[in-house]
Amino acid sequence: MKPFVTVFALAALLCGCGGAHHAAPGGGDTVTRAASLLTIVERPGWVEASVADPWREGHVLARYALVADSAANTSVPDGYTLVRVPLRRSIVYSSIHTAAIDELGAAGAIAAVADGDWLSDSDPVKARIAAGDVADLGPSMSPSVEMAVGLEPDAILLSPYESGGRGGIERAGAPLVEMADYMEPTPHGRAEWLLLMGYLYGVPGRARGICDSVAARYDSIAAAVARSERPRPRVLTERPQSGVWYVPAGGSYMARLIADAGGDYAWADEPGSGSLALDAAAVLDRAADADYWLLKEYGGISEAALASAVPLARGLNAYPRGVRVCDTRATGLYLDQAFHPDRVLSDMAAVFAGADSTIYFRPLAR
């Protein structure tokens, strides 16, 4: 291990961070509890953040040493990437993370994004791109590396993929922060990644407050649903793409959300936290009698368009009256689903209780 000098200047960033802590090996307090892929430890004068590899059990994808920008020391333990905090000029690939950073009050530290054309209408960064305050690097798979280099970012937040490339963005010379939150199997676990952004942008106390509030409200809604004696409607999700119907496995984030909202998910008994690739016959076998069919469509979809795109739709009990569509362009579903699962849970529970229209889900347009 290289020499590592304790940096007490980071203490100011740790002040006010509440929540449950527990002792970590080697000294310090572990502040994450629900996340399965993220471990954050407050060490004396610095913060350790470790990201587990979602695709290789027992392996670590990345380790970071978050050190106060004002500290002179730059030595970090072997195997750790140094990240100076708070970030002031960051590149953030996902609109899910830009929205969270905005909620933390740190939107001014976003210098650029990727895939700006796909931002939802509700994303606060969209107006800042139009005003020229935030740069759009273009597609995340092939970003403008030259533009990124010119911005001189202090970190780049991106989502890792098992076989996906970086598009050369590592040449920008900034630390790459692997935001693997989307691989978390539970709503609580994913929401806890807000803590990492809290430390990165110098507002850990604010992040902890939001996390605690979200967890408490989610648990309250789930408990109320569990006490209810109403029937649990059978639920189908998604629609086929290129002949394959990808539905969440029984151990997935979405399956957990449906169960907590009071739904009987058609594949709840299928193991795994990823997706199941099914054909039409398998879907009809399990979900032909489903009461609700939940769809997420960019721009929405009409009754006729759905029947045209999915010929077997007319053979499903849920079509058309039980279909609920979320227009992801017009709503903030993806943004809220990550770090405010309590909002989505409340909405979904209302659907399963018989509500016609909710904040996110609406009946099929005719």
Structure description:
This protein is 28% helix and 20% strand. A hairpin with a 7-residue loop joins β4 (46-52) and β5. The protein has 366 residues and is of the alpha/beta class. The protein contains twelve helices and 18 strands.
Quick structural overview:
The protein is of the alpha/beta class.
Report strand order across the widest sheet: 1-2-3-4-5-6
Low-pLDDT runs of 5+ residues are 1-19
For the record, give the distance between the C-alpha atoms at the N and C termini, rounded to a whole number.
65 Å
Query: What Rg do the Cα atoms give?
Result: 22 Å
What general outline do the C-alpha atoms trace? globular
Biggest sheet character: 6 strands, mixed
Number of strand segments: 18
Look at the structure and give the mean pLDDT: 90
Q: How many helices does DSSP assign? A: 12
Determine the strand fraction and express it as a percent band. Answer: 15-25%
Topology as a string of helices (H) and strands (E): HEEEEEEEHEHEHEEHHHEEHEEHEHEHHE
Based on helices, strands and strand pairing, what is the structural class? alpha/beta
* Helix-residue proportion: 25-40%
Task: Quickly list its features.
alpha/beta; six-stranded mixed beta sheet; five-stranded parallel beta sheet; about 30% helix; disordered N terminus
